[in-house]
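Entry 14. Structure prediction run on the chain below.
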Amino acid sequence: MATDRDDAARALNAIRELHATHDALLEAVAGRYGLNRNDLRCLEILHREGAMPAQRLAALSNLSPAAITKIADRLVAAGYAVRRQSATDRRSQVIGVSDGHAELRATTWERVHADAVAVLEDVPAARLRDLLLLLGRLADVNREHARRLSSDPPEE
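Output returned:
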């Protein structure tokens, strides 16, 4: 008879498999876009969060300002992002996704999104709410350990 601990271990392994398959999907998308993974990660942040100053993108991506400058240059040169004057501070610029990116994004992610939604639509609403709570708690665990590992020296 399986124990709760065995079920938790199997669930964690399933989450790891989901993460690995999502990582492979992102690698395929980065290849399709002709970008590296950090470029794609920043482009996804811009898509999700909207246009922002480079400093905010650096903070959200956990990359240095110098790296963000290079990434922004590549994204703009590839036609996936644009730099424009900030609506709130005319002395500064923001980086945002371009219309060209929106078109490529639709052709890249439309089927992925539709297939994932189809899977989730088969799950009863109450179970989806439980899943959302669980995923939020697991994301909190990841954030906490990322902070800890980033700030604590390695153990000897």
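The CA atoms of residues 30 and 40 lie 6 Å apart.
Filed with the rest of this week's runs.
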